[in-house]
Amino acid sequence: MTPVGLQIESFTFNPFSENTYVLFDSSKECVIIDPGCATRQEEQELKDFIEAKGLTVARLLNTHCHIDHVLGNYFVATTYHVPLEIHEADLAVLRAVPTYSAAYGFPQYQEVLPEKFLKEGEDVSFGNTRLQVLFTPGHAPGHVVFYHEESQQVIGGDVLFQRSIGRTDLPGGDYQTLINSIRTKLFTLPDAVRVYPGHGPSTTVGEEKNSNPFLA
């Protein structure tokens, strides 16, 4: 048992108010999940936190590859010399970003392609921490979430929000697939598990089971 368990720091970046997460433990190793930093100022905010905590960036992970979750991939990959890791089913989603980034107001977007693919059943390890990878398609075809069983916390991307769910009207999205992912992957976790979503405040599995209008 480590003296300090998993700690989660969140940053809200870019015009989509996307939640970027840094997960770290007493080893001082960390992973960055869904870096959405779109400006020099946002990049600096992320960098300052990592330096202030004395962290070593071990991995760069994407829950999925819509533009608001990947804007900072190039910055993180090149600054900290870590390869990008995504689920292979989201590669086409990632590759599409340069075709529309300028239209969304991000002409400066620089592409980074993955060097590793995440798979359900293969844990993500760093420092003293192991995260379970759960495959949760529906919002995006290759969406995954990262579950830390010991602390009962999950980085949930755009699957489940407080009183809402991810949109399914984007390419590769499917409503019934998303509902199935929530019911079979997230709602089978303990009610106390805290869900840290890609947008908005955190919630718990139990709260959403009881109050989410999309899952009544």
Structure report:
Residues 17-199 form the Metallo-beta-lactamase domain. Its cofactor is Zn(2+). This is Glyoxylase-like metal-dependent hydrolase (Beta-lactamase superfamily II). It comes from Rufibacter quisquiliarum. This protein is of the alpha/beta class. It has one domain (7-215): 4-Layer Sandwich (Metallo-beta-lactamase, Chain A). It is built from six helices and 14 strands. A six-stranded mixed beta sheet has the order 1-2-3-4-5-6, with helices on one face. Strands 7-8-9-10-13-14 form a six-stranded mixed beta sheet. Strands 11-12 form a two-stranded antiparallel sheet. The N and C termini lie far apart (38 Å). The relative contact order is 0.15.
Provide a quick synopsis of the model.
The chain has 216 residues and is an alpha/beta fold. The protein has helices at 40-52, 67-70, 73-80, 91-100, 175-186, 205-211; strands at 7-13, 18-24, 29-33, 56-61, 84-87, 116-118, 124-126, 129-135, 144-148, 153-157, 160-161, 164-165, 194-197, 203-204.
Summary keywords:
alpha/beta, Metallo-beta-lactamase, Chain A, 6-stranded mixed beta sheet, 25% helix
Structural class: alpha/beta
CATH architecture: 4-Layer Sandwich
Spatial strand arrangement across the major sheet: 1-2-3-4-5-6
Elements, N to C (H/E): EEEHEHHEHEEEEEEEHEEH
Distance from N terminus to C terminus (CA atoms, Å) equals 38 Å
Strand content: 25-35%
How does the SSE layout of this entry go?
Blueprint: E1 7-13, E2 18-24, E3 29-33, H1 40-52, E4 56-61, H2 67-70, H3 73-80, E5 84-87, H4 91-100, E6 116-118, E7 124-126, E8 129-135, E9 144-148, E10 153-157, E11 160-161, E12 164-165, H5 175-186, E13 194-197, E14 203-204, H6 205-211
Parallel strand pairs: 3-4, 4-5, 5-6, 10-13
Antiparallel strand pairs: 1-2, 2-3, 7-8, 8-9, 9-10, 11-12, 13-14
